[in-house]
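HUMAN: Quick job: go over this next protein and say how the chain folds.
***
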Amino acid sequence: MSSPRPSPLASLSSSKSISTQKPHPIPWTHQETLHLIYAYQDKWYSLERDQLKSNQWEEVAVTVAARCGYSHFDPSKTSVQCRHKMEKLRQRLRSEKHRLSTGTQSSSHWLYFDLMNNLLRGPLPISARPMSSIPFDNHQDDHITEKSDNYNSDYEEEERNNRNRLVGMENWKMDMMKEAEMNRIAIENKRMEMILESEKKIVNSIAKAFGCLPSKRLKIGHDS
C-alpha cells in the first residue's frame, strides 16, 4: 500500500515558506569590528559624544567599508548593521564589567574589552595627568611636529577617499534608480500597446460581425 501523496496546496505552502525565509546576515569579521570601533570613536568624539544620526551612521558604514578595502559591489555592512553592532558591543562591555565588579572573574578575556573601555572613558585630558607622566623634551619637538603633519596628511587623504567613495556609491544608486524607472516606463508602454492591440482586435471582430469597416467608422485611442 503506497503512502498518500501530499496535496498540491501543501506543497505550494511549503515551497512558499522556504522562499520567503530571510537570508542569514554575514557575520562580522575581526577586521570589520576593529574598523567599526575606530570609525565610531572618531565620529562620536567629533560630535562631543552626542548621539549619531542616520546620515552620520551612513558615514561610519562608508568609512568601515573603505578601511576594509571593499568596493561598491562587495557585501559591506550597512549603517543599521553598524549601529546594532555597536549596541551589542556596549552591552557586552557592561556584562564584562559586571563580572569584574562581582568578583566572578579577575580579568576579562574578551578581545575588544580594552578598546571599548577606552572608547567610553575617552581620551584623558592633559590637566588630569600627573606631571611626571608628561614628557618635557625639547629635542623631540621637531619629531613630534613631523609626525603630526604626517598624521594630518594621511587623515585628510583618507577622508578624501571616503568622500569619493561615498559620491561613487550615491552615483551608482542614482544610476540604478534611473535604470529601474526606464524599465518601468518600457513595461508600461508595452502594456498599453497590448491593451490597444486587444481593443483593436475586439473592434475588428465587432465590425466583421456587423459588416462594417472599422477604419472608417470606428477609431481607437484618444482621438475618439
User: Anything to note?
Assistant: The helical segments are 8-19, 30-46, 54-67, 79-102, 113-121, 141-210, 214-217. The two ends are 68 Å apart (CA to CA). The chain has seven helices and no strands. The mean pLDDT is 76.
